[in-house]
Specification:
The chain contains 3 helices and no strands. The protein is an all-alpha fold.
Length: 83
């Protein structure tokens, strides 16, 4: 009986570790997207007051790439709701 409990706990622990890793990767992706969107916002605010430079264009491109690669944006573009 103790071996069954131990095996069950090991499996449960493994599943939690896998879920934690998945959530960690998702958090990193969201953080990267957040930083790109913040850079785009700053670029737009600076663009309203003066000419835009090559650095701001690069920030806008990074934001577009981060947004396009985000699974929620893909689901919305396909007309599907994210899970």
């Amino acid at each position: 009986m103790e071996r069954v409990n131990t095996a069950s706990l090991c499996l449960e622990n493994l599943l939690m570790m896998q879920e934690n890793e998945r959530l960690r990767r998702q958090a990193q992706q969201l953080d990267q997207e957040n930083k790109a969107l913040l850079a785009q916002l700053k670029q737009q605010q600076q663009g309203a007051g003066g000419p835009s430079g090559s650095a701001s264009a690069a920030a806008g491109g990074a934001s577009a790439a981060a947004t396009a690669n985000h699974p929620h944006h893909k689901a919305k573009a396909a007309g599907k709701q994210p899970k």
